[in-house]
């Protein structure tokens, strides 16, 4: 498909996407699989609208399996990580929230709210970068209330990554002192971690490389994690920097990963 026909197809789907609220599915909220069905519905629409890649569907499937094993809830260690993430973002001089196609489809409103709560920029950052998809995601985020959306300039590189995958904005992820990278691929998470940044990763698989290289790994579904970080940030909005630093220092990344693994191995069906 040419870039032009992809754009045309996307514009058709995008208007359908925008006119149909993504929260609408033909299933009552009381249905035991409501959250899971809603998530699938959003990802499916994301693919149709040219926001999410086909590989994103596979990532979604992997995530669902881990979420099932975690009991589809925010476990206490993940809540503590989300609080530490909120404190770290509030302490930052230049926080950036990285957005890929899955995250844009799943939590666009929630990302805009978090960006507002911690005064961060959003940056579209794709593993399989195409200009059409970059623009589709940026438009989609703006339509959901995001004000500062970066990623399209791509005038800097993350050292250690090949050309396309290393592209970032000089005044965005490149300069950031704190980055939130939900569902990041392992190589890029590692390269970002080597850039002297505090890195917050959201990933349902505690054995995946990305949470393992993060300073704050959050083993939770982005659907629950992002609004919970925002809730913590609002609650901590008036805290002084010593309190925020203490919350970050007291958080132990290894313990959080172990607690998630323990829940997965010992959880009941
Ligand atoms: P790595 O290179 O870090 O080992 P991977 O190969 O395991 O990563 P992918 O196959 O790209 O990673 O899958 C994406 C990751 O995103 C998986 O670890 C999956 O658990 C996670 N994931 C998928 N959907 C969600 C979601 N909704 N919330 C949080 N994590 C998710």
UniProtKB/TrEMBL annotation:
Residue positions binding ATP: 40, 62, 203-205, 209-210, 221-222
GO MF terms held by the record: acid-amino acid ligase activity; ATP binding
Pathway annotation: Cofactor biosynthesis; coenzyme A biosynthesis
A Pfam short name: PPS_PS
Comp. bias intervals (Basic and acidic residues): 1-13
Biased composition, class Acidic residues, residue ranges: 14-27
UniProt catalytic activity: (R)-4-phosphopantoate + beta-alanine + ATP = (R)-4'-phosphopantothenate + AMP + diphosphate + H(+)
Any GO BP annotation: coenzyme A biosynthetic process
Nucleotide-binding among keywords: yes
EC number: 6.3.2.36
PANTHER family: 4-PHOSPHOPANTOATE--BETA-ALANINE LIGASE
Quaternary assembly: Homodimer.
Name of the molecule in the record: 4-phosphopantoate--beta-alanine ligase
